Amino acid sequence: MNRRGFLRGTATIGTVGIAGCLEGLGFEEESAWANPPLVENRPDAVYLPSSREEMRTYGMAADGDYAVALSYTFPHRFWTVEATSDGKQRVEVETDDTLHLMTTLWDRETKTVLPVDMRVELLQDGSPVDAGISSPWPMLSQRMGFHYGDNVGLPGEGEYTARIRAGPVALERTGAFEGRLDTAASLEVDFEYARSDINELSFETLDESKWGTRDALSLMDHGDGSGSHGGDLGPPPTGQEPRIADIPGDSLGTQRSGDAAITAFVTDADRFTDGGSYLAVCPRTPYNDIILPLTALSATVERDGEVVREEGLVETLDGELGHHYGLELDELVAGDRVTITVDSPPQVSRHDGYETAFFEFDEITYTI
């Protein structure tokens, strides 16, 4: 019986929301390979998927300012952002996929997840293994937040090493990030793959009446990150940003476009500007406030009906504003109209619940 059959079976006996160990229930490895039901009539927005699954951490490592966590869960479908008619391509589970392998990379000083170029090499007994992964996809997941991942086909059970090369950070860096993270990191995490570990992951079917509801699953709890897996690195962050109310600067408000929550700030902090204004735009997922990296945005400033500035925003990391897209401007004055345009949607792959959102954006206008 595959996992889809398992879900149908639980619905038949009226057990909705059941969670447990697949292997303990007598299901074979294949039951962890089949996808749960895909919600029908999904909105062009963030929505609740049909199920929730457990994820566990193999281990963590550090190299200078960088830290990484290596996690795993069932192999499952996801969507890559592609130059197709609908902007995405569904990736199905292959029969030789053994798990979905995920990495979270962050800055140790600020506990901030880092969008970077990343390569992962899997080794066994010191020799490379062809497991179908080299450049993991940047991804959005309602449970994991922003991370990197892919389905992986390991040749068998046993001990492996994940060799991760990441960075340097190519984004503009200000405040606590200035002058740091400008070199690459090399990190290694040893782990042991056992089929029973995958089959023992818990799996929960949500109440079918909630499928497709405009909401999101809560972010997973990584615990405190201590012990054999994490040492003193602490739990990995998820890409959840500070509360809007805690960000310094003058907020122009939050508006929704493409179902992203987009907030604009204006500040005159001298690390951004010398006597002018700095515009910071923070697009996030609704409900969980996860960053939306690898997006192209531009701003148009109108004054007295005339366009006085039109330019692309720069993706930036700042210790106080967090991840945002910014632009230094001459001083803004009362009555100026600032229009934000999303020129390209987030170039990140999506798990269930995010694959229909963040593609079609309307312009957003703020008045100073």
From TrEMBL:
Domain DUF7350 per the UniProt entry, residue ranges: 246-367
Superkingdom of origin: Archaea
Region named Disordered: 217-256
Family matches, as InterPro entries: DUF7350, TAT_signal, Tp34-type_sf
Pfam families to which the protein is assigned, alphabetical: DUF7350
PROSITE patterns: PROKAR_LIPOPROTEIN, TAT
Protein name: DUF7350 domain-containing protein
Species of origin: Natrinema altunense (strain JCM 12890 / CGMCC 1.3731 / AJ2)
